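hey so u asked for the seq, here:
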Amino acid sequence: MDNSPDDSGIRELLGENELLRARAADDAVELDGSAGSLAALDQLVPSWREDPEALTELGNDAGLYLGTVIVNTVPGAAWQIWPDGRPTVRLASGREIDTVELGHSWAEHGSPELSQVQAEAAED
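ran it, structure tokens below
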């Protein structure tokens, strides 16, 4: 992948999140790219924790969706794609957030709350 954080193809690919969108739709949660949608995700009953395969994919999706929301809502935030293909979000302050790692933690344990990560990024 390209290392350019403004590449719209990368942004589109990182924002797909099919399994997360399907689970959210099952609970009438619309993933519209807003901070509010993260708060709605935080309220979902975590039925996926019983399925290890779904847990891994959902963790990836949650992290990529979190990153997409931060990039779209926090001024100066951008995707950073490392040579090994790992996506992170770089804030204007230079701080990097490994949103995929955070998404896995959220899917497995319910913390950190996705909405809290976004709120902290917005304050950075």
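Residues 52-73 form the longest helix (22 residues). The beta strands are 78-81, 87-90, 96-97.
lmk if thats what u needed
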